[in-house]
Design goal:
Layout: H1 3-15, E1 18-20, H2 24-29, E2 34-38, H3 39-43, E3 49-50, H4 74-82, H5 88-103, E4 110-117, E5 121-129, E6 132-142, H6 144-149, H7 156-167, E7 171-177, E8 180-188, H8 195-204, E9 208-212, H9 217-227, E10 234-235, H10 240-252, E11 257-261, H11 267-276, E12 278-282, H12 287-292, E13 295-297, H13 303-319
Helix pairs in contact: 1-13, 4-5, 8-13, 10-11
The structure holds adenosine-5'-diphosphate and magnesium ion.
Magnesium ion binds near residues 38, 42 and 262.
Main location: membrane
Family: Belongs to the cation transport ATPase (P-type) (TC 3.A.3) family. Type IB subfamily.
Subcellular location: Cell membrane
């Protein structure tokens, strides 16, 4: 590789919104044969929204039969806690809760002792609800399997609601208040307009796309269907630490793996991909992901992944 060709290639890449870490990155890009794609925030936009109709147990009346205060609404309590999280699920819940609070002329309660359980959910105490100033409620919001691990059972009507929501591709999370499951919140995101085409182009370039997510299998299958990723190439309900293992296993089987991600939960997998292949971070993503990656995609768009591969191959042709 001549330095000039690499320089021209890097410059061309930069024009296309592909920022590479160093000169060796272009050469690595052209040898990729597998591309692991994070779902939420990568294949889909990171903007999730609450589907109130598919949710269950929200509204001030439904919570343990009490209608005395809108701030006892599980949506409010969940929103108060999720205000401390950067997760797309959290953003959807907090936005919906704020909207409801505003429409009722109230505000979100405060929270303390917030703990983020990466890839699972959040816990903390929600304080100072309007009807009970000075009171505190232990709140947990997260995936059903994790709520169950905490010894909290899901009543029949909520597990039905969860199943119904997930069967339409939503992400369902459980809200537990003082150790009791009281609501299921369904949130949805949207596949980026360019994702299906970009994934088809990657395949045409000889690169196998794999969908990787911590989300439930039904939501993952729903997105895979929209972008035509083989159901056998979908890995769902994968915890953040296990995302790295998925990349390592593909590498062990001989694949040269690129991984595209945006979240804190993708950082370890991006770094792992970088040991033998490449980590690519969405420019819209978290700093942790960007720092762990070899390539930053300035436009939050999978088109940029295709552009990176094309430029790297064109640069190789110039060198030859
Ligand atoms: P992804 O791989 O789709 O980015 P994560 O690994 O971050 O997903 O999260 C996996 C699952 O854990 C989510 O689909 C959700 O059910 C749950 N979860 C993660 N963070 C939160 C949160 N802040 N609030 C509620 N649920 C969460
Ligand atoms: Mg993500």
């Amino acid at each position: 590789a001549t330095p000039t060709a690499i320089l021209v290639g890097s410059g061309r890449a930069a024009q296309l919104g592909v920022v590479i870490r160093g000169p060796e990155v272009l050469e690595l890009t052209r040898s990729l044969d597998t591309m692991v794609l994070d779902k939420t925030g990568t294949v889909t936009t990171a903007r999730m929204s609450l589907d109130a109709a598919a949710s269950a147990g929200i509204g001030s009346e439904s919570w343990l039969g009490r209608s005395d205060s809108p701030t006892l609404d599980p949506l409010m309590l969940a929103g108060a806690l999720e205000a401390f999280s950067e997760h797309p699920v959290a953003a959807a819940i907090t936005a919906a809760a704020r909207e409801r609070a505003e429409s009722e002329g109230s505000r979100l309660p405060g929270a303390e002792g917030f703990v983020n359980h990466e890839g699972r959910g959040v816990t903390g105490r929600v304080t100072g609800t309007a009807s009970e100033p000075g009171s505190a409620r232990e709140v947990a919001v997260g995936r059903a399997s994790w709520i169950a691990e905490r010894g909290i059972a899901l009543p029949g009507h909520l597990s039905e609601a969860l199943e119904a929501a997930e069967s339409t591709g939503a992400t369902g999370v459980v809200v537990a208040i003082d150790g009791q499951a009281t609501a299921v919140l369904a949130v949805r995101d949207t596949v980026r307009a360019s994702s299906a085409t970009a994934i088809a182009e990657l395949r045409a370039l000889g690169i196998r796309p794999i969908l990787l997510t911590g989300d439930n299998a039904r939501a993952a299958a729903h997105v895979a269907g929209q972008v035509r990723i083989d159901p056998a190439d979908v890995r769902a309900e994968v915890l953040p630490a296990e995302k790295r293992d998925v990349v390592a296993e593909l590498q062990a089987s001989g694949a040269v793996v690129g991984m595209v991600g945006d979240g804190v939960n993708d950082a370890a997998a991006l770094a792992q991909a970088g040991t033998r292949g490449l980590g690519l971070a969405m420019g819209s993503g978290t700093d942790v992901a960007i720092e762990a990656a070899d390539i930053t995609l300035v436009r939050a768009d999978l088109d940029a992944v295709v552009a990176a591969v094309r430029v790297s191959r064109a640069t190789l042709r110039i060198i030859k």
